[in-house]
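Supplementary Methods S3. Input chains for the assembly prediction are listed below.
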Amino acid sequence: MSEEKIRVLVAKPGLDGHDRGAKVIARALRDAGMEVIYTGLRQTPEMIVEAALQEDVDVIGLSILSGAHMALVPRVLELLRAEGLADVLVLIGGIIPDDDVPALLELGISGVFGPGTNTDDIVRHITATLGARQ
Amino acid sequence: MSRIETLVNGVLDGDRRALARLITRIENRAPDAPAALAALFPHTGRAYIVGITGAPGTGKSTVVNALARTLRAQDRTVGIVAVDPTSPFSGGAVLGDRIRMTDLAGDRGVFIRSMANRGSLGGLAAATGDVVRALDAAGFDVVLIETVGAGQSEVDIARTAYTTIVVDAPGLGDDVQAIKAGILEIADILVVNKADRPGAENTVRALRATLELGHRLRSAGHHGPLLDQDDAPPEPALDLWDVPILKTVATERSGLDELAGAIERHRAYLSESGLYEERARQRVQAELATRLREELLARLLDERSPAAVAGVIERILARQLDPGSAVRELLNGT
Ligand SMILES: Nc1nc2c(ncn2[C@@H]2O[C@H](COP(=O)(O)OP(=O)(O)OP(=O)(O)O)[C@@H](O)[C@H]2O)c(=O)[nH]1
Ligand SMILES: [Mg+2]
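Predicted structure tokens for the full assembly:
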């Protein structure tokens, strides 16, 4: 009777305004059968990692529009490692300049998804990456 | 040491990651979860369990956040389980209660877990009771359970919680609806939240009027599903608790000391009246009955071929067999 569900934390770090994009992603992941913990706006890296730990998520989706990704992302990854959560997939959505993508992937980000991304691609990326581990 | 023993020891040592992982295994009904729960059980029974329910959007999560802060100021640690419905279409869920609980971030005396009910009939996740036990064993002084009031789930919450808070708010226009849903019957404390909004007094009056109609039916004399009258302990205590109606503005943390005080008074009332023990007995019975039912059904379905079950359904539809005889047939394996 074991029934596993993929759990995803969707968070919006940084100080910039709206979270429409993050909500669209959250619903798309729900519609793909995942359990999405939605934490809302203005999350610090510390809050994100603490929530990821308590919720025991498989995936963290960060929505970043502010341009602060090169400051926020390394901090999130560092805290994840410190908490023993290095195996959590971290995805980034939002507005990320192409030039920064290689550096983010190098840091350990699993995928970067820009504004035009089809949500199905994100779902496939998650299921394929988690599935390949088992 | 096996993986599950490591998790159990971690939970008992206050390791938050172990607690989180164990909760996942409970939710997933992993094969090793029952052994873990058995190992944790002797360490449970210390936490005071409070249920918070009510219509969508009344401010339950905001109340939980504010109440947790008040309890923390009294130096009590708080575990929180926030349950939301699973989408019947996809099996997924969006769990958004944490949005209102960001005040609690960074406090190691608080642990928040969001849960989807995973389609459990009761509304309350089938695993919620076990998740609460894990938090209890982990040493949290108080466990708060938030559920959306939608029929059966309130009854389930009342079974798990020692004190049940029902949250209402002005301007929902569904006071009557809430009463129909039986929500007042299970309230030990009624909260009119968003008291900063117009109409709060009206909501209080409507609730008081309904309470006076005697909708509260925490009757004595009901022994639960497993024991009949003769086997049960005599003279169950009468529940004469006077349900307080409190106003709060959870966003401003106003009215929260009164709410924490009311919980404390209810707790004292339960133990002085003997109801605490009686309800504990009822809870054990209800849980045993539910688990037996589930287990027996699962076992039976394991033994019978799906074709046999499908055949019985077809014969009932064709009016060749009545449901009562069908059950006997399935049980007897003929
Ligand atoms: N004016 C006012 N708004 C409040 C108060 N408490 C909560 N709110 C607001 O009401 C909205 C819903 O609050 P939540 O705490 O999410 O309500 P909930 O009952 O947990 O909602 P669900 O879990 O979705 O059923 C939010 O926008 C809150 O900020 C209050 O005391 N006064
Ligand atoms: Mg809520």
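The two ends of chain B are 46 Å apart (CA to CA). The beta strands of chain B are 48-54, 78-84, 93-95, 110-116, 142-146, 163-168, 189-192, 245-247.
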